[in-house]
Amino acid sequence: MAVAAPSTRRRGGAPPKWVPAVLPVVLLALWEVAGQAGGSVYLPPLSRTLGVFAETWFPDVVVHDVLPSLGRFAAGFLLAAVIGIVLGLAIGMSRTLDDYLRPTLEFLRALPAVAVLPVAVFVLGLGTSMRISVIVFGVVFPVLVNAAAGARSVRPERVETARMFGLTRFAIARRVVLPSALPMISAGLRVALPIALIMMVVSELVGGQNGLGFYLTYQQQNFDIPAMFAAVIVLGVLGNLLNALYAAVERRALHWARHA
Amino acid sequence: MTAVVDPQVAVSRAARPAGRGRRLGRAGLRGVVFVVGLVLALQVITTVIGSRYFPQPTAIAAALVDQLADGALGVALLSTLGSALAGLVLATVVGVVAGLLLGSSPWTFAIVRWVVEFLRPLPSVALVPFAILLFGVGSTTTILAAFYASLWPVLFNTLYGVRDADPVAVDSARTFGLSRVQVLRRVVLPLALPNVLTGVRVASAIALVLTITVELLTAAGGVGYFISFMQAAIRTPEMYAGVLVVGVLGYLIALGVQALERRMLFWNRRGDA
């Protein structure tokens, strides 16, 4: 099939491997120079921003803010994954359930998760349970929808065969439907990952006591711009790390599904 | 994966027309039955037992009608919708142009690659406090936040669409003497359109999320502020009415983008799935 490579790719050859490193270095250098040249409170030099890490982050901020954030992130993500997968498989396996629940779920899925934040604050107060449930609300629907779609697309022969061998509905769900739906579920989890991170930050922006989101707004209100940038950098690195981590887990766990 | 499922889809689609209307009818009826049942159950529970946290659905409905008649909710709604749409349109224009450029030029892509790949997974809300400092409280901040967050899905989907564009079609167009820009506009963009619209669909949800987040944080009007104001004032029915309205807004935006997709992609089989 691959007769002709795209014409654009032939011209001039592929760029060398070092090319992507140029712009980040230039930008970081510009940041430092422009910051040193001064003029704006809004642009402290890079070195001062990095200095924040050396001065206050280890171990204070890490223990006080980063770890609680990560804990709530993990708890919310895992809880939502379990709920989403179980409900999604049930809905995908049962036409009746699907018919009854669909409009309600479509509505809840279209509801931006941040809009329930005030409701969560009202009902659950300003504690950990509020923050985790906001993350759960944001994550559960992408997972659920994908799990249901995955369960619906399982080949009927597989389910029939399993039933012929006398497996119960629960056993079929666990042994046949779940494995078949796993690639779809995984796609849903990948979509949900950045949402969980966003909800983690947002949930800490209001009435927070700790966490990266709290740190961010606290420094903003203190007008400590270098510290605020430090938090933004950490969140960027965190987002990238989580992505890479998830990709690695997915590659290991779903290597058998890659023929598709 | 789609390749595996495809034969079945084709079969079920061919077999569908006769039974489809009836099935849709019954499914729709069941959906309505569940919603009505849920609301009735909530009404009974809140009336009999009462709840500090959830008012009677009739009270929410009354608050909704009140606030809509009063105009407060309508104004907030329009402001939210305006900011989200402005951000989305801006993101679509910039994202498509940038995606076309990055997708068709490996050098440009190589140059900006690390920066773009670092920025994309950065949770966009992290930049909101800084944006508030820079641009103050107002629609500029809201629109820019919505724009920034919804840019990435459009950009990356366009980029992938451009890369997947059939090289034979591109080369043929070149052979017929079209310039590079013409090829991008007439051949590559139409081929990438399904991907572009997928990006816009994802982006539309994100634009709304960011708009509401900024409204919650800055008290700059909009439904986000409406909800948090009502929460602070412990006017619970109004708060739930606000959430309801946001849900409807999200649903309508999703439907709108879906309709747009169907209209623009009537020629594409993936589009009507």
Folded structure, characterized:
The complex is a heterodimer of chains A (260) and B (273). Chain A has 260 residues and is an all-alpha fold. Chain A is 79% helix and 0% strand. Chain A has ten helices and no strands. In chain A, helix 3 runs parallel beside helix 10, helix 8 packs parallel to helix 9 (212-222) and helix 8 (169-205) packs antiparallel against helix 10 (225-253). By secondary structure, chain B is mainly α. In chain B, 84% of the residues lie in helices and 0% in strands. Chain B is built from eleven helices and no strands. Chain B has helices at residues 2-15, 17-48, 57-70, 72-104, 106-119, 128-135, 139-164, 167-175, 180-218, 222-232, 236-264. In chain B, helix 4 crosses helix 10, helix 9 (180-218) runs parallel beside helix 10 (222-232) and helix 9 packs antiparallel against helix 11. Chain B starts with a helix and ends in a 9-residue tail after the last helix. Mean pLDDT of chain B is 86; it is low at 1-18. Classes of the chains: A mainly alpha (260), B mainly alpha (273). Chains A and B meet through helix 1, helix 2, helix 4, helix 5 and helix 8 of A and helix 1, helix 2, helix 5, helix 6 and helix 8 of B.
Shape of chain B from CA axes?
globular
Please give the alpha-carbon distance between the first and last residues of chain B.
Answer: 15 Å
Question: How large, in whole angstroms, is the Cα Rg of chain B?
Answer: 23 Å
Unreliable stretches of chain A (pLDDT < 50, length at least 5) are 1-10
